[in-house]
Structures are given as C-alpha cells and as structure tokens.
Amino acid sequence: MIKENLAKLSDFINEVENQKPIDFLYKQMKKLEENIGSDSLGSKLDTNNFSIELNSFLDFYKKKGVPDEELIFEIYQRLLLLTKNNAIHSYAYSLGLKPSLYKDEMRLLFKGKTK
C-alpha cells in the first residue's frame, strides 16, 4: 500500500512540475480560498502553514530593503515554490503518507530552487 501511494505521489509531483506555473498557481489559490472556510483539519493546517510561510518570507524581504521590482519577482518565485510544496504535502497527507517517506522525492523536485 505504501509503495502504491508513493507511486501516486511521484506521479502527482511530476504533474505539478509539468504544469504551466501561472495555471498551477491560479488553481491552487482557488483551492486555498475554498479551504479557508473548511472544517477539515488538513485544510486548516495547509492554509495556516502557507500563510505563515508567505508572511515570514515577505517580512524577510521587507527588512532587507529589496527594491519593489525585484521583490515582485522574488514573491512570484517563492509563491510558486510554496504552492508546489503545499499541494504536494496536501496530496501526500490525503494518501496517509508521512513526510519522512517522500522527502527524497521532494528534494529531487526542488533541488537548487530553495534559498
């Protein structure tokens, strides 16, 4: 069962990576909007974690005094990365997989893309 779920997760990760970034972001933002009113624990955790990470990122760049033009690009890049992470973690959670089981897949996907 675990191997089957890891295979499903691997397919999902490939699907996430092959989507057009803007389409993927749009779809995931809509999903997060829907989760805000949800009573599901997984949905609440996803929305809360995503919000905390994004706010932390914005605070970091604000303090650095990065010019707005550069900040917009950095926000887009970070938003894409956070959204991909969030989607993958949510899907893994729905399959009953713990992060320790799929962290190698995540590392391969995001290799060289994190700061």
Structure, described:
This protein has helices at residues 2-18, 21-36, 41-64, 68-95, 99-110. It is mainly α. 12% of the residues are buried. The longest helix has 28 residues, at 68-95. The chain has 5 helices and no strands. It has one domain (26-110). The model has no long low-confidence stretch (mean pLDDT 76).
Topology (SSEs and partners):
Blueprint: H1 2-18, H2 21-36, H3 41-64, H4 68-95, H5 99-110
Radius of gyration: 15 Å
Number of separate strands: 0
Please work out how many helical segments DSSP would assign.
Answer: 5
Order of helices and strands: HHHHH
What spatial form do the alpha-carbon principal axes imply? elongated
The profile of the biggest β sheet is: none
Estimate the strand proportion. under 5%
List keywords for this structure.
0% strand, 115 residues, mainly alpha, 5 helices, 84% helix
Question: Short summary of the structure?
Answer:
The protein is mainly α. Helix content is 84%, strand content 0%.
